[in-house]
Write a structure and sequence with these properties.
mainly alpha, 5 helices, about 85% helix
Amino acid sequence: MKNLLLVFIGGGLGSTLRYIISKHLSSTASGIPWGTFTVNILGSFIIGLILGLAAKNSTFSHSQTLILATGFCGGFTTFSTFAYENHMFLKSGDFFSFTLYTLMSFVTGFIMVFLAMYLIKQF
């Protein structure tokens, strides 16, 4: 029960922060949903830091990893919104934005996880 509560609290905090960031960064004028992109990329970096620290020297306990990685990062990032936004690009025939957004999101997300874990190893 304690683990569920930790994930619940972390997820609530992450979702709230995602909403705030997305609200301020999303604009229909640019085409690319920068709010979703930003939280997914930042979340990728954060989870890389958290799991890198947890693996390197047991910096975080199991409970701390649950609230931060599973809860916060799980609530902060959003694959469902990413998928919906891509659906809307395809539905409108905007194949360029679909391709650009998808590639930018996947490539940059992976780079951020690897970068964060690399930085943890160096320090």
